[in-house]
Each structure stands twice: as structure tokens, then as C-alpha cells.
Design goal:
The chain is built from nine helices and eleven strands. With 289 residues, the chain is an alpha+beta fold. It has one domain: Beta Polymerase, domain 2.
């Protein structure tokens, strides 16, 4: 079933994601919710005025307090085909400790997702989605928090999804996959384990307001340390063109992107211009123009 990206397939995924971004931006503006695009999506907005040409996802950043407002909107208003998946909810699709926005009745299964986990049924066919990375206030113990946060986030993933047993990539890979499977079996004795892990994570990353904010949500340590920025270098946000719509960026987006990527305006080598290789994609009844 494994597929490769054709220009048409990638264009359709980007079209749906742009549609989602347009609706998300309108929801935020209508409800006074501040957000900004970040990571690769911010590079795309600045360098390409849209997607990085080979990219197939969107990254959103917002303060955790703003996300609380966003959750209430999705709980009380008609949001059409958009569905908000939170890590403290009973969602089969939710594989990360940060929330995701999904487009109902579509399916996107990446090859890595298919290769990593033994999953079938509804939870296996998660919809096309984008990531919402939540920012918290930083404190003086950032390095220790990062170490603890990474452990909790990995445990969250191992609990939610049973890893495939890797038998053909050496002893270390085999033992690692076996440990992950055992963690899954152990944690599943407690049906509320994922919610408890999320509560543990919130206690770890939530601190009183100060001048600096940071995103502990990603699994990439350099992205976490690079996300540290003054609050007033993020807000108020600035508006920038993205495909045929507009998005918000941190007012210090150059500082934020340089901290993580260095010279982000320079295109990477061709062998690094990769996306999430698809295993199975379905657009459902989505009406393309």
C-alpha cells in the first residue's frame, strides 16, 4: 500500500492544510485568540510566502492559556470539519503530548507511523492534521525540565501505541522496540495512564509569568532550547502572506528562526528536502476546485 508523493497528491494535501489554516485563523480572530506559525511553517511564510515546496504539514505556536480558550471554542461552537485533538482526551489519533487540529473524513498515514506501531482500525487511519505547539513561561531550571519532559513525552507515546518489534536492524533496535512494547503492556493496565502522564507534564512545564517563554512540547531538544524567546519578541504578532491566505508570525520571527535553523533563508541540499513519506492517503469527499 506504500505510496510516493506525486506532485498532484502533495498539492492536494497542501490545499487542504491551507483551507484548515484559513479556517483556524478566522476562528482565532473571531474569538480573540493569539497564535503564530512556527518552525518550518514560519520558514515557508518568510522564504516562500507559503509552504516550503516539499512540506506537507503546518506548525502552529500559541501560549497554553490561549489554547485553553481555543478548546472552549471547539467545545461550544460549530467548527465544521475541523476537529481538535487534545492529549488529555480519549482520541485514538492523538500520538503526541501537544494538541493537533484534524480534518474529518480524510486519512493520512505516514510510512514512519506505519513502520513504528502495530495499530489497526479507526485509530490507525488518523485524519490529515497539523500540530499546535504550546508555549509556557520559562524559569531558571530549563535544562532539567527538558530532560524530564522528554521522558514523559516518550512514555506518553509508548503507552498510546504498541511499537512494532524490530528484528532486522541490529540488537540495539531490537531491545529498544521490545522495551517500548513492554511499556505499552504495563501502562495499559491503567486506562487513565495517558491522562495522568499529561497532568504530570503540565505540572512540570507550567510556571508563573515572566519575560521569557519556551516550547517544551517538541521531541527535538534543539528545537526546545531554540524556542526560548522574550514574550514581547513574540507578541503582538505580525501578519504575513501564506499561499492565498494570511497567517500570524512572532514579531521577532527572524530571531526565533535563526536561533533554531541558522541561515534559514538558504535552501537545504536537495537530499534534505524531504516530507513525511506517505503510506496511505485518502481525501474522502473533499471538494477540490
Amino acid at each position: 500500500m506504500s505510496e510516493t508523493y506525486t506532485p498532484d497528491m502533495l498539492e492536494k494535501i497542501q490545499f487542504i492544510l491551507t483551507d484548515m489554516m484559513r479556517q483556524f485563523d478566522r476562528i482565532c480572530k473571531d474569538n480573540g485568540i493569539e497564535y503564530f506559525v512556527c518552525f518550518g511553517t514560519a520558514i515557508g511564510a518568510v522564504r516562500h510566502q507559503g509552504f516550503i515546496p516539499w512540506d506537507d504539514d503546518i506548525d502552529i505556536g500559541m501560549m497554553r492559556t490561549e489554547y485553553d480558550k481555543l478548546k472552549k471554542v471547539f467545545e461550544t461552537q460549530d467548527t465544521g470539519n475541523l476537529f481538535l485533538g487534545s492529549p488529555d482526551g480519549d482520541y485514538e489519533w492523538q500520538d503526541k503530548i501537544f494538541p493537533k487540529l484534524y480534518y474529518k473524513d480524510t486519512v493520512f498515514i505516514s510510512e514512519s507511523w506505519n513502520n513504528d506501531f502495530e495499530k489497526s482500525g479507526e485509530g490507525y487511519g488518523r485524519p490529515i492534521n497539523f500540530d499546535i505547539f504550546l508555549f509556557d513561561y520559562a524559569d531558571d531550571n530549563t535544562e532539567e525540565i527538558i530532560k524530564k519532559a522528554l521522558k514523559i513525552k516518550r512514555r506518553y507515546i509508548y503507552y498510546k501505541f504498541k511499537s512494532r518489534l524490530i528484528k532486522d536492524q541490529g540488537l540495539v533496535s531490537f531491545i529498544s522496540s521490545l522495551v517500548k512494547r513492554l511499556m505499552y503492556d504495563f501502562h495499559h493496565k491503567d486506562p487513565d495512564k495517558s491522562k495522568k502522564l499529561y497532568e504530570e507534564y503540565l505540572k512540570l512545564v507550567t510556571h508563573p509569568g515572566n519575560d521569557y517563554i519556551i516550547c517544551y512540547d517538541t521531541l527535538v531538544p534543539s528545537d526546545i532550547t531554540g524556542s526560548l524567546i522574550r514574550y514581547d519578541h513574540s507578541f503582538p504578532t505580525v501578519t504575513m502572506k501564506f499561499e492565498d491566505t494570511e497567517v500570524q508570525l512572532q514579531n521577532g520571527y527572524d530571531e526565533a528562526l535563526t536561533a533554531i535553523y541558522g541561515d534559514y533563508m538558504k535552501l537545504p541540499p536537495e537530499d534534505q528536502r524531504v516530507a513525511h513519506k506517505p503510506y496511505y492517503v485518502s481525501f474522502g469527499d473533499y471538494q477540490f476546485p
